[in-house]
Specification:
This protein is α/β, with parallel strands linked by helices. It is built from 10 helices and 21 strands. The protein has a 6-stranded mixed β-sheet, sandwiched between helices. Strand 14 and strand 15 form a beta hairpin. It is globular and about 70 Å long.
C-alpha cells in the first residue's frame, strides 16, 4: 500500500461540502411524503398477524413514522411513544413537548401523557379500537408491561421485535443522501484535524479538536462520542480518549461520526504518528486486505445480481485474517447497518441471518486486529449496497492508504 506523507495529506476541500438549507428542506419533504407508505407497510403487517395496533417507544421508530425527534440521551418519559391503529397515529407528549410534537408530527393525534400512561391506557387503546396490541418487547420494561396489562385486562399485549427496524434497513434515496452527507462531514473534519496531530498532545485534546471540526463543519450533532486511542489503547475496539499522550512511532485510532438531519455516519481510521513500525504496518495491510476482500465480494455479488448474506460477507473478511494467524484478535462483527441509529439492521457477522442482505441499504465494513497491550488497527467505511443497480459504493471517501502524521 502507498505510504502518504504530510505533503500529500487530504484537505477538507477534497470532499463534498456541507449540506445546504435547500438540501435539508428537500429531505424534510421527502420524509413527509414517505411516512404514509411507511405506515401502510406497518399496518399491512399488523393485519397479516391479526393485530389491531402497534405500541412503540424508540426514538428512531417514532421519528421514522411521525417526524417527532428526540435528541440522544433525552429522556422524554412517555413523550415520543406512539400508538398506530388502523386509521390513526397517536403521539404521546407532555407539556414539554406538545408544541414540538405539533410542529414535527402534524399528521399525528397528539395525546397528553405525563407519567400516567397506565391510567390513560384503556382510553388510548379503546380510541383506536384495539384488542390486540403489538409491543416493542425489547424496549418496554417488565414493570411497565405489567401495569399496562393490569390496566386493560381485556387487551392482549403481543411481544414483537424488529418489525419497524427491518423496514428501516431498506433505505429510501433521501436517507442514503443524508448518510452520505454525514460521511462527508466526517471526512472533512478528519482532514482538517491532520495538521494538529503531533506527539505529546493527549488523546482528549485531539478528540476535542475533532469534535469541534464535526460540529462546526455541517453536523447537527455527533453520531456518537469520539474515540481517539493512541498506541496500546488502540487495542480497545470501543475505548474512550484519556489524558494519555500521543507517542511517536505508534498508531492513533479514530472512531467517530457525524449526524445530519437525523442520519449518521461512522468511520474508523488508524493513522501512524511518525515512522510506522514493521509490526503495525503488517497488521494495517492485513486489515486493509480483509476489508477489500469483503467489499470486493459484495461488489461482485451486486454486479452479478446474486444474493449475498451478511454472514457470508463477514466470513470473507474473517477468512483473510484467520489465514494470517490473527483470527483470535478479530472478535467483533465485520459490519452493521446505520441510519437513524448508529447500529441497526442489517448486520455482517458470524450470527447474522442467513437471508440475503436487503436492498438498497447501507452498512459498515470494519474488520480489525487488536493486540492487547501493544497496538490495534481497524479500518471502517460505510458502503451502499444496491444490487438492483449493480452498485456497491463507498460513502466514506477519506483515503485508506497508510497515512503518516506528526512529523
Amino acid at each position: 500500500m502507498t505510504v502518504v506523507e504530510a505533503r500529500q495529506h487530504p484537505t477538507p476541500s477534497d470532499f463534498a461540502p456541507a449540506p445546504t438549507e435547500a438540501d435539508r428542506t428537500r429531505w424534510e419533504e421527502a420524509d413527509r411524503a414517505a411516512r404514509p407508505r411507511r405506515l401502510v407497510r406497518l399496518r399491512e403487517r399488523l393485519a397479516a398477524e391479526g393485530i389491531d395496533a402497534y405500541y412503540g417507544v424508540t426514538h428512531e421508530n417514532v421519528r421514522y413514522l411521525t417526524g417527532f425527534a428526540l435528541g440522544d440521551g433525552e429522556d422524554g418519559g412517555s413523550s415520543g411513544q406512539f400508538l398506530v391503529g388502523a386509521e390513526d397515529v397517536l403521539l404521546f407528549a407532555d407539556s414539554r413537548y406538545t408544541i414540538q410534537a405539533a410542529r414535527q408530527a402534524p399528521d399525528a393525534r397528539i395525546e397528553t401523557v405525563y407519567g400516567d400512561l397506565p391510567e390513560r391506557w384503556p382510553t388510548l387503546v379503546g380510541s383506536v379500537g384495539a384488542r390486540r396490541v403489538a409491543v416493542e418487547a425489547a424496549f418496554v420494561s417488565q414493570a411497565m408491561w405489567g401495569r399496562l396489562a393490569a390496566a386493560s385486562p381485556d387487551v392482549e399485549l403481543v411481544p414483537v421485535e424488529g418489525w419497524i427496524e427491518a423496514d428501516r434497513a431498506t433505505k429510501e434515496p433521501s436517507e442514503l443522501e443524508r448518510v452520505a452527507a454525514a460521511c462527508a462531514v466526517a471526512d472533512r473534519a478528519l482532514a482538517a484535524l491532520l495538521p494538529a496531530i503531533r506527539p505529546g498532545r493527549t488523546e482528549l485534546e485531539v478528540a476535542m479538536d475533532l469534535e469541534w471540526a464535526i460540529r462546526t463543519g455541517g453536523a447537527d450533532a455527533l453520531a456518537f462520542d469520539v474515540a481517539c486511542l493512541a498506541g496500546p489503547e488502540a487495542a480497545l475496539p470501543h475505548g474512550s480518549p484519556g489524558d494519555r499522550p500521543i507517542l511517536s512511532g505508534a498508531v492513533l485510532l479514530f472512531d467517530f461520526g457525524a449526524q445530519v438531519a437525523g442520519y449518521r455516519s461512522d468511520m474508523t481510521r488508524t493513522l501512524f504518528v511518525g515512522d510506522p513500525s514493521p509490526r503495525d504496518l503488517s497488521i494495517y495491510r492485513l486489515v486493509a486486505e480483509a476489508q477489500a476482500a469483503a467489499i470486493g465480494a459484495l461488489t461482485e455479488a451486486a454486479k452479478d445480481g446474486r444474493p449475498i448474506t451478511g454472514r457470508e460477507a463477514d466470513g470473507i473478511a474473517r477468512r483473510v485474517i484467520d489465514e494470517a494467524g490473527q483470527g483470535e484478535r478479530f472478535g467483533h462483527g465485520t459490519g452493521h447497518g446505520i441510519g437513524l441509529a448508529v447500529h441497526e439492521q442489517p448486520s455482517l457477522g458470524k450470527r447474522s441471518p442467513e437471508t440475503p442482505l436487503p436492498s438498497p441499504t447501507v452498512f459498515s465494513v470494519e474488520p480489525g486486529v487488536y493486540v492487547e497491550g501493544e497496538t490495534g488497527v481497524r479500518i471502517e467505511d460505510l458502503v451502499t449496497y444496491e444490487p438492483a443497480h449493480g452498485r456497491v459504493e463507498r460513502l466514506t471517501r477519506f483515503p485508506r492508504e497508510i497515512l503518516v502524521v506528526g512529523r
